[in-house]
Amino acid sequence: MNSQSLPDFLCDISARSADKAVVGFKTSFEQLRMLYRNNIPAMYTDGAKLIEIRREDLVAQAISYQIALQTGAWSSRIKTPSHPDPVCDPEALHSIIQGLTAAQTRMDILVERHLVDRLIVRYEDLVLEPDEILQKIGRFLGFDARDWKAERPPLERQADSTNDAFRAAFQRYLRQQAPD
């Protein structure tokens, strides 16, 4: 697009969209923080809205992350070379969960600081009720979403008995720790 900076890129991509199109970007906490630090949302007449997808089951998220770290299988669409079976590291899982919790807290603080208009969507609800969640997102964005239908994602569920074994090992680890 020949954009020379992030603000130029955002202006260019927004200008290419239709009048009523929604332009969205997937961002990490650090990227979102940078956008607010540089007052990028002020470039938009109506500001920016944040749709945050949060996984309620942080243990499952940490397990998926630990397995992906070991296998390189970050997506069912990416073919990875054969690899040894992943090994559960309960202490590392505990650290990952603490990191996920801290990340959610940082996001909450950023939203409060910048008065971000945010909708939190539970990942589990999105998986179970995609049409309902899509309509909820449409309403949040100011669209009549009654005709919106979710399409089946091209990704396949990767969790299997390995995830179950990791959860059982983590539960054993937690029971061995000092009681709360």
Q: Please, could you describe this protein's structure?
A:
The protein has 180 residues and is mainly α. It is built from seven helices and two strands, in the order ααβααβααα. The protein has a two-stranded parallel sheet. It is globular.
Give the termini distance in whole angstroms. 56 Å
Low-confidence stretches: none
H/E series: HHEHHEHHH
| Estimated helix fraction | 40-55%
- How many helices in DSSP terms? 7
Q: Record the strand order, biggest sheet.
A: 1-2
Count of extended strands: 2
Tell me what portion of residues adopts beta-strand conformation.
Answer: 5-15%
* Coarse shape: globular
- Major sheet size, sense and barrel closure: 2 strands, parallel
Structural class: mainly alpha
Described by its quaternary structure, the protein is single chain
Q: pLDDT average, as an integer?
A: 85
Radius of gyration equals 20 Å
Write the SSE topology:
Blueprint: H1 6-16, H2 29-37, E1 49-54, H3 58-71, H4 90-114, E2 117-122, H5 123-128, H6 130-141, H7 161-176
Parallel strand pairs: 1-2
Give a brief rundown of this model.
This protein has helices at 6-16, 29-37, 58-71, 90-114, 123-128, 130-141, 161-176, and strands spanning 49-54, 117-122. A two-stranded parallel ribbon has the order 1-2. Helix content is 52%, strand content 7%.
List keywords for this structure.
7% strand, two-stranded parallel sheet, 180 residues
